[in-house]
Design brief:
This protein is an alpha+beta fold and about 240 residues long. It is built from nine helices and eight strands. Strands 1-2 form a two-stranded antiparallel ribbon. A hairpin with a 5-residue loop joins β4 and β5. The protein starts with 9 loop residues before the first helix and ends with a helix.
């Protein structure tokens, strides 16, 4: 058995390498996409309002967040069509278990109920994949599309067609009537060249997307035991009002 005597400067060399590695890890952690960084504009969770209960006993109840104003802005991270953009979209557009509301069916099985916001975001992700020229993953994320070919169309083509239709109906249903100011461009003499509307920096009245994400993730951890009888067109707000 023997030991070696380190040469002068060896410890300093390894200490420098260690500092370099730690610095890289810090930079990587800061730059890696997360829901806090990139999902905030879709995942905002305003403070749940506390109101006195109707019984007048002084107790407070938590109610779903009301609409709030949020400006639309340029979002380069969502325009990113690289693998980094893929990671951002997977964070923004869904949750760990697909954005479903989970309800316990029995001791070994739970049923996923769709939530329209996450369904539309899923569809946008599929359209994004198609725009990239990649339809891989369309089957894995399918919302009930059957396998095989139908009328000469592949399953992927049918899924993209479904998604285009779903997003269009979602936009028509929400009917965001916010007025978007035009940006007027003039030449040096003051003559108007054109008006452009890009929608940036325009305040929109938004619903509590963060509330929906919070409740969905809550059922991923602890599925609901059952769903109460709700009317057609019931929302997540109706459901959790009923469960309170």
């Amino acid at each position: 058995m023997y030991t070696t005597v380190p040469k002068p400067g060896t410890f300093a060399f390894f200490f420098t390498i260690l500092l370099f590695i730690v610095s890289l890890l810090v930079v990587f952690a800061v730059s890696f996409p997360s829901s806090a960084t990139y999902g905030s504009w879709l995942s905002r969770s305003p403070c749940l309002c506390e109101q006195a209960s109707a019984s007048g006993n002084g107790e407070s109840i938590r109610t779903p967040p009301s609409a709030y104003l949020e400006p639309f802005r340029a979002r380069p991270e969502l325009e990113d069509m690289t693998e980094a953009g893929d990671a951002i979209w997977s964070t923004v557009a869904s949750t760990k278990q697909g954005g479903f509301l989970w309800v316990r069916y029995n001791e070994t099985y739970k049923t996923g109920h769709g939530v329209s916001m996450f369904h539309a975001l899923h569809c946008l992700s599929m359209i994004r994949d198609a725009a990239k020229g990649s339809l891989s993953g369309a089957v894995a994320h399918s919302h009930g599309v059957k396998r095989g070919s139908h009328g000469g169309k592949s399953e992927e083509e049918m899924h993209i067609g479904h998604c285009l239709s779903y997003v269009a109906q979602s936009l028509l249903c929400s009917a965001d009537g916010t007025l978007e100011r035009p940006k007027t461009y003039k030449d040096g003499a003051g003559n108007v060249l054109r008006d452009d509307v890009d929608g940036e920096d325009v305040q929109h009245r938004c619903n509590g997307a963060g509330y929906l994400r919070e409740k969905v993730e809550q059922t991923e951890r602890h599925p609901l035991d059952s769903l109460p009888g709700l009317k057609e067109g019931a929302t997540m707000w109706d459901l959790f009002d009923e469960l309170r």
